[in-house]
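Re: that backbone. Tokens:
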């Protein structure tokens, strides 16, 4: 028998560590991904049209349930993100693929074929594009409405801070004054708002203290500012944000983040458990229990959020098209 090479040893050690982490996952986070009959039609249509969904790219545990409820979240502008957030499973890189000029049409056709009544459009951060991809959101919404006039479209956007023309400007919004928001960012947000989405979502992802290690390239106040400026442009559009718990935040910090969102007139909230995609991502510091999620959900409703989804398996688009 030949001796193990160092590489073989490393692979086995990594596999053993991952098995150990999987064994630590609480029972309430273990669930099947869904029936093949619910997954395969969506996967087939997506593959045929060479489009992407965050449901698949992010390995969402709820994708079978959402597909069965005629909801899906499309990932625009390719699967490669120009940011490097330490929690996210989406691929990272400085050279994303060129935009597919047929993508808006392909997404609209997929929605029609699947009979979706509610679609969510999200995107990787495309800091390489002149407008950060804002116009692509608007173009895709317009195409969806041409083919699917009865389908509601929610957006989950990046912060539109990076991009050509940005330079090395300092982070804006240090004291919470809207006038300090960068004009390029404002115009990009305006482009999406004027497309009249059914809901405008932008996630803060974690509490203020943990933004640096968790969201590389993003800022807490900058993200809160996105939600504020949406309301400035159109107060009738519901806004939404979410946090993934388990990075080491405290209960007090979670409540503080929810209060900051309400101060920005954020209408809807999602709270879910962070689950480590691989050993290259941040480790889970705590598994919050279903009872704790219920408590945070109750606090959020008392604060005035009109729609709250709070639970270990909740993700940004979970039951997005349903009212409480």
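Recovered sequence:
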């Amino acid at each position: 028998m030949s001796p193990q090479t160092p590489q073989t040893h490393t692979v086995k050690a990594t596999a053993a560590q991952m098995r150990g982490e999987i064994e630590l996952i609480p029972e309430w986070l273990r669930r099947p991904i869904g029936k093949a009959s619910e997954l395969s039609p969506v996967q087939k249509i997506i593959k045929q049209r060479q489009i992407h969904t965050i449901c698949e790219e992010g390995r969402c545990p709820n994708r079978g349930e959402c597909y069965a409820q005629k909801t899906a979240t499309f990932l625009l502008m390719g699967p490669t993100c120009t940011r490097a957030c330490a929690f996210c499973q989406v691929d990272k890189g400085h050279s994303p693929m060129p935009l597919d000029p047929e993508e808006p049409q392909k997404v609209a056709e997929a929605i029609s074929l699947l009979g979706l009544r509610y679609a969510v459009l999200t995107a990787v951060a495309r800091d390489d594009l002149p407008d950060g991809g804002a116009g692509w959101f608007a173009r895709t919404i317009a195409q969806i409405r041409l083919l699917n006039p009865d389908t509601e479209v929610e957006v989950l956007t990046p912060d539109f801070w990076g991009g050509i023309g940005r330079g090395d400007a300092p982070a804006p919004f240090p004291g919470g004054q809207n006038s300090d928001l960068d004009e390029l960012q404002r115009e990009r947000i305006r482009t999406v708002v004027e497309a009249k989405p059914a809901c405008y979502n932008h996630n803060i992802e974690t509490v203020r203290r943990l933004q640096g290690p968790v969201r590389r390239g993003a800022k807490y106040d900058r993200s809160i500012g996105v939600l504020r400026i949406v309301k400035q442009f159109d107060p009738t559009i519901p806004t939404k944000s979410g946090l993934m718990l388990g990075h080491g935040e405290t209960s007090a910090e979670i409540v503080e983040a929810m209060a900051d969102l309400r101060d920005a007139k954020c209408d809807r909230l999602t709270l879910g458990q962070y689950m480590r995609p691989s050993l290259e991502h941040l480790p889970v510091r705590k598994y919050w229990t279903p009872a704790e999620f219920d408590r945070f959900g109750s606090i959020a409703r008392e604060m005035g959020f009109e729609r709250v989804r709070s639970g270990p398996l909740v993700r940004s688009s979970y039951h997005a098209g349903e009212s409480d």
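The beta strands are 52-53, 71-76, 80-81, 91-92, 118-123, 152-156, 199-201, 239-245, 268-273, 307-310. The chain is about 40% helix and 15% strand.
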